[in-house]
Amino acid sequence: MTDAPRPLIIDTDPGQDDAVALLVALASPEFEVLGITTVAGNVPLARTQVNARKVCELAGRTDVPVFAGCSRPMVRALRTAEEVHGVTGLDGPDLPEPTMALEPRHAVDWLVDTLMAAADASVTICPVGPLTNIAMALVKQPAIAAKIREVVLMGGGFFEGGNTTPAAEFNIYVDPHAAHVVFSSGVPLTMIPLDATHSALMSRAWMADLGAVDTQVARATVAMLEFYERFDMERYGTEGGPLHDPCTIVYLLRPDLFETRFCHVAVEIASELTMGMTVVDWWDATGNEPNCTVARRIDADGLYDVIGTCLKRYPL
Ligand code: BDR
Ligand code: CA
User: Fold this and answer.
1) How far, in Å, CA of 120 to CA of 145, rounded?
2) Which of 19, 62, 148, 286 is deepest in the core (most CB within 10 A)?
3) Is residue 316 part of a domain?
4) Does residue 168 line the site of ligand 1, with CB under 6 A?
5) Is the CB of 197 under 6 A from ligand 1?
6) 292 touches ligand 1 (CB under 6 Å)
7) 18 CA closest ligand 1 atom index
8) How far, in Å, CA of 176 to CA of 189, rounded?
9) Which residues contact 280 (CB under 8 A, 6 or more apart)?
10) Ligand 1 mutation target, pool 88, 152, 165, 245, most atoms within 8 A of CB
């Protein structure tokens, strides 16, 4: 007997790697994507909500509702990342303006109502942008915590340091207060930090393999990724860039590809120097109760095999 599809909500700030995360999830029968909530991050909310709908249309999945959430972090001013993702956030391919409507409800209200109507420990959430919407939902209705099966997020970095400041990764740096709320909420939490995503870079052979596929999805994905990876290739001097956000989806499909440890993680929200740092107690130096499964390394071949297989499922 096959398992019923796992109810999943993706909270995102597309972003080319966010777009690939959406495409992988929407191509996987293992998931029932209940909705996509968008947040300000890589680019402002006015663009991320449009980009999420562009990706749904590219995937032929206009049945999946897309909601706009918070337009700025809880406390700090918004910081965006156009230098990585381009002005639109999805620079690279020429995707048409979406025709599917944005849902009229605020993402935080929809998250609260959807989770409150769900069975206990039933809904999985993958946040792949700043954690503002998820934290705001937890603040608005703390009882949603019991409805969440697990949160698997892309964010943070410890051994690898940060990519936005020396200490902090982008998603956590943009809204450290939201990250603090989520990490101290008690929900079952897995974090895929830079330590893991930087251990699995896109290879030239993988890009060429995808480039040989004659579908709209493959063409658009290659155009997105070629634009997106140039920033990291230049910065790190590597032959390929990391593909952060899809790692959350692949973790749910194939946890065996990830090397992890369950430990205590706290988020820095006081010092400006280390703001947004994810302090991972890898060696149990404090004796603090573990609150997060932390990924340290990924089997790169396995990861890109899953992503490629999912992307090739699109018929057009
Ligand atoms: C994260 O920041 C964004 O630029 C990417 O979409 C990813 O979610 C990586 O630090
Ligand atoms: Ca993202």
Assistant:
1) 9
2) 19
3) no
4) no
5) no
6) no
7) 6
8) 16
9) 156, 158, 193, 263, 264, 265, 292, 294
10) 245
- Predicted TM-score (pTM) of the model is 0.97
CATH assignment of the domain containing 32: 3.90.245.10
pLDDT digits (tens, 9 = 90+) for 279-311: 999 999 999 999 999 999 999 999 999 999 999
Whether 303 is in the pocket of ligand 1, judged by its Cβ within 6 Å, is no
Question: How many domains does the structure of the chain reveal?
Answer: 1
| CA end-to-end distance (rounded Å), the chain | 30
Residue 71 located in a structural domain:
yes
Q: What ligand 1 atom has the least distance to the C-alpha of 15?
A: 6
Judge contact between 295 and 262, C-beta under 8 A. no
Let me know if residue 1 belongs to a domain.
no
Q: How far is the CA of 171 from the centre of ligand 2 (A)?
A: 7
The reply to whether ligand 1 has any atom less than 6 angstroms from the CB of 42 is: yes
Strand ranges in 167-270 using DSSP code E only, listed in sequence order: 189-192, 258-263, 265-267
Among protein residues, the one whose CA lies closest to atom 4 of ligand 1:
42
Amino acid identity, position 44: P
pLDDT in tens, 174-232: 999 999 999 999 999 999 999 999 999 999 999 999 999 999 999 999 999 999 999 98
What's phi and psi for 77, nearest 5 deg?
-75, 150
Ligand 1 atom with the shortest distance to the CA of 197: 9
Q: Give domain status of residue 86, yes or no.
A: yes
Instruction: Give which of 130, 132, 131, 134 is closest to 148, Cα–Cα.
Output: 134
Annotated catalytic, 264? no
The rounded mean pLDDT for the chain is 97
Domain around 209: 6-311
